[in-house]
Each structure stands twice: as C-alpha cells, then as structure tokens.
Amino acid sequence: VDLRAGPVLARLAVLAAQKHRRILKTHLPVDALRFSPKARYIHVARDGRDVALSLHHHHLHANDTWY
Question: What is the spatial distance between Cα 50 and Cα 33, in angstroms, rounded to a whole number?
C-alpha cells in the first residue's frame, strides 16, 4: 500500500473491494500504522548485515524509470 506505484485512491479501492482475507506488507514505522483490534499483526525483522547488502544491490540496480 505504501509503494508509490499508481494513484493511492485506486489501490485503496481495490483493497476495499476484496472479499477474502487480506495480507498487507509495509515498510512503514510502527508509529505510522493504524491499529485495529480486529487485525493480526506479524513483525518480521532481518539481520542488519543482510539489510545493508540488500539496500546496496537495490540502489546499484535501480534507475530513474523504476522510481
């Protein structure tokens, strides 16, 4: 949902129209999330060394078109 690909309102409309269970992945910090007692939240963390190498490769191969 927080990826800047297409209009936000269009993505939210697609999510609202879904009848099945939804799984949303986000990179937002926890204080930017809206919590609901109806939802389940799973926090997954990675080793910082893995994150650094992944970020390096991401920026090495990304270009203006991708952004």
Answer: 25
- Residue 20 one-letter amino acid: H
Nearest alpha carbon to residue 42 among 26, 20, 21: 26
Rounded Cα gap, residues 25 and 22, in angstroms? 10
Residue 11, judged by CB atoms within 10 A of its CB (0-12, 13-18, 19+), counts as: middle
41-65 residue pLDDT tens: 888 888 999 999 999 998 888 877 7
Q: Is pLDDT at 1 greater than 70 in this prediction?
A: no
20 conformational bin, left if phi > 0, alpha if psi -120 to 50, beta if neither: beta
